[in-house]
Amino acid sequence: MVEQRQAGAVCFGGVSMDHRSGRSRLGVVAIVVEDLGMSDRVNSVLHDYAGIILGRMGIPYRDRGVSVISVIVDGTEEEISAMTGRIGRIPGVSVKAAYAKAAGGVLGRDVV
Questions:
Q1: What is the DSSP string of 88-108?
Q2: What is the pLDDT of residues 26-70, one digit of tens each?
Q3: How many whole angstroms separate alpha carbon 91 and alpha carbon 38?
């Protein structure tokens, strides 16, 4: 992965890691891949947003012919929304994000 520095921000795969413009949020993203042929596209988007991903777990549910992926994220709402938006536009893929409540899920300081 190539690291680029731009005006105080660090970019990984095109994702800005400069959280000064917004507060970092903790959340979980649920992804259901019904068209397994789209798995490479989903993984490509997740790779692009590796800088905000804390961890992921993928479960192939063979009886139903789908894969279920949970992704733990820590990023601005804009970053998380951009990632879920890209994933949601992939045919045969559903995505939903949930955020921790403000008391525990928003950092009390800006992350640099």
A1: HTSTTEEEEEEE--HHHHB-S
A2: 999 999 999 999 999 999 999 999 999 999 999 999 999 999 999
A3: 7
Say which CATH architecture domain 21-100 belongs to.
2-Layer Sandwich (3.30)
* 92 phi-psi bin (left φ>0, alpha ψ -120 to 50, beta other): left
Question: Which pLDDT does position 49 carry in this prediction?
Answer: 98
Using one digit for the tens of pLDDT, what is the confidence trace for 2-29?
333 333 344 444 444 444 456 899 999 9
Q: Is residue 7 a contact partner of residue 56, using CB atoms and an 8 Å limit? A: no
User: Are 78 and 22 in contact, with CB atoms under 8 Å apart?
Assistant: yes
Domain ranges of the chain: 21-100
